[in-house]
Design a protein that fits this description.
By secondary structure, the chain is of the alpha+beta class. It has helices spanning 2-29, 34-45, 47-50, 55-72, 85-101, 104-122, 125-203, 209-237, 240-243, 254-263, 281-301, 338-348, and strands spanning 268-273, 307-313, 317-324, 352-357, 363-370.
Amino acid sequence: MRRNRWSYAGRIVLAGILLAIAWPTSLNELAVTPATALAVALVVALPVLVAPEHPWRAWVASALGGVLIALLVGAAPGYALSVQAVHLVVLCGLTALVVARCAPWAAAVATAGLVGLFVLATRTTEGAGLGIFFTVVVLAVGLLGRRVLTQRRQIVEAEEQRADEESRRAVLQERARVARDLHDVVAHSMSMVVVRAETARYRLPAVDAASAEEFTAIGDAARAALTELRGVLTVLRADDDAADLTPQPGADDVDELLAATSAAGVELTVTTTGDPAGLGPAASVSLYRILAEALANASRHAADVPVAVTIDHTPDTVRLRVVNGPGRSAAGPGSGLGLPGMRERAAAVDGALTVGPTGDGGFAVDASLPAGRATLSRVSGP
């Protein structure tokens, strides 16, 4: 910001100096009145104010001004130039700037125009030679500046690319660290749950058939969770391109999710309307994840009351509603991440999510997701 302020101040000072030079000298060198001399001086000075941002426009304004002055005003008696020398100096600088920063066609027009204005200002063949000489010098300066700017731009791009790579490497390292922690702690604990559940009938005496079936269900649920956790670990350890190839559960897996929840002892009432065939992959994944989290919350906070699930598929939208009554037993502790995770899932597909208590003391989760085939945005959580 401070650098820009100094840049603008420098332009104003330069324009003021040019105005102070061009105004009095135009009274002597050109056949003009004082008012016209001021206009001529403004034509000389003003283009430098916009030259850094708009070099081509500044050059066009300065060159057209010089042509009009040469044709309409002319030199005063005793002076050879019909365009002020300071004006030609300004135009040389603008031409060098155009060569350095603008397209090749603009550079070609500017260099040819500079020669032409020298000829017009002197109206002699010597003026053409002088114009060619100055144009060669200006062209060399402009090409040198173009090379410097190109090298500087390449350096900046290389620095930005390196910064992006470092940022990406840091993200991958953090993901790898999280994956290691999940593997060492959660995956190991889940594996032990599977082992203990499946061997309970052999380790514990007097395990009846119902208890054995319950242990088997616990082992199956833990094994399924472990499989999903391994999928998450694969995503965390892979780069972004490989992570996108990992399959995720969607609407086709909803029935299995509902069956597993019901088998866990949750009393479900399920109402499904419409055809899910037109549901896009992004909405499909979000529908499954939101439903899974809503059912997990219901089973945790109101495990002893019925849960009503309503899924309504329309051509444009899929609506999900999960409602449970007030729980009769103490709720287990939660992680505090479930509701934010559901909101992120809905927002990732430009959907909407509302959660809150019902009138009878229960809790409701309402999600509305567009059914289009949008790409799922990357959100936190598995």
